[in-house]
């Protein structure tokens, strides 16, 4: 159903398109276009209209149109009859003229009135007749000499005389040039003969005078040449004599200078050889010195590396072993202090308990309480003395433990100092003489340095612990039956055990 509804619409649209195309086609056929070198002359309803280099609408049955060329017209102007000059001499003149229709609308309209329906040949024939008539009149006013010698004047007069007549046809003269002028009576040919004869005569006279002058000049030149040759021969002989004398003197000087140059050259060569030998020796000495310097710098670098490794190991030991000893010392002191406080608190507690118990029973058994109080006081004094002995024992044990740790760790410190040296594959000793400090030289100096480093270990331990080893040794009582420690055998120090592997 929808297809039947759309069919009329499609049909109407197709008809509309066809009508539009037909209108456009008709408009295109009626539209006439011309280029800038043409003019379209449309006539009919509405009068005459001129279109130059554009387009115009030409409606069939109403308008008609013709195209008029505005291009340049070039043709020959050669009258068939002879033209007579003011002297009565008959001449034949051939010229070339170039004309065109003017560009203004009025001139185009005038040219259209004259030439619109004519072919180019007919148009050129009409223009040629006008040009030939004016050329005949101008030639009749001039002589043959003027025509031959002044062709530009003839062309100018031709353009000025023809301009008015061709303007009436809507034209203008672009150029007019005489191409050939001749006559049958050989007037033009004979016209130049007097001048030719005069010129030839003058040329002969000039040639004779030139030959005369040439002969005179030639004789003078020959005489002068002979004199010059004689003088030249005389001067040549004199010059040869002087030249030979100078050559002999020059050869003598050359031989002397050559001998001097050879002697100087040999002297310079000997000096150069000697200088080269000296310079070679100096350079070899410099090379050896540089090699020794490089080797010394390399060895100094190796020594610095070894010293840096020893310093690193010292710092590592200070950071590990000595810190561990300090930690053990602090731990032992802390344990002793804790034990002392614990014993004091226990004693105080017991005393307070006994006192409270005695006070409670005092009212019942006063006498018994007094006796028990005496017993308790004596017992407290005894326990206090025991606690004092324990504290002294712990203090002495603390210093002994520290000394024990230091002495047991001393070999490890020394071993750590010596370990970097055990890794050295080879030691090169550079000795420059006896040391100012009396430390010896060579290998003995290395041994002295190692012994000095080992001797500095106790000082390092004293700087880290704050206590001198000699004082620790004096303050620690000797152990055994003969020592002072046996006097206080009744008060045993608390049993404190060190962790295994720490001693």
Describe the structure.
The structure is a single chain. Helices cover 69% and strands 11% of the residues. By secondary structure, it is α+β, with helices and mostly antiparallel strands. Among the domains are: 2-68, no CATH class; 72-191, 2-Layer Sandwich (Tetrahydropterin Synthase, Chain A); 301-427 and 446-479. Strand 7 (83-84) and strand 8 (90-101) form a beta hairpin. Helix 3 crosses helix 5 (151-167), helix 7 packs antiparallel against helix 8 and helix 8 (366-422) packs antiparallel against helix 9 (442-465).
How much beta, percentage-wise?
A: 5-15%
Number of helices: 10
Oligomer: single chain
Number of E strands: 9
The pLDDT mean sits at 76
In whole angstroms, the N-to-C terminal distance is 117 Å
SSE pattern: HEEEEEEEEHHHHEHHHHH
User: Over the alpha carbons, how many angstroms does the gyration radius reach?
Assistant: 75 Å
Structural class: alpha+beta
Q: Report the biggest beta sheet as strand number plus sense, adding barrel if it closes.
A: 4 strands, antiparallel
Specify the helix fraction band.
55-70%
Q: Spans of 5+ residues with little confidence (pLDDT < 50)?
A: 479-503
Overall, the morphology is: elongated
Secondary structure layout plus pairing:
Layout: H1 2-30, E1 31-33, E2 38-44, E3 49-52, E4 55-57, E5 63-69, E6 73-77, E7 83-84, E8 90-101, H2 105-115, H3 120-139, H4 144-149, H5 151-167, E9 171-182, H6 187-190, H7 193-362, H8 366-422, H9 442-465, H10 469-475
Antiparallel strand pairs: 1-4, 2-3, 2-5, 6-8, 7-8, 8-9
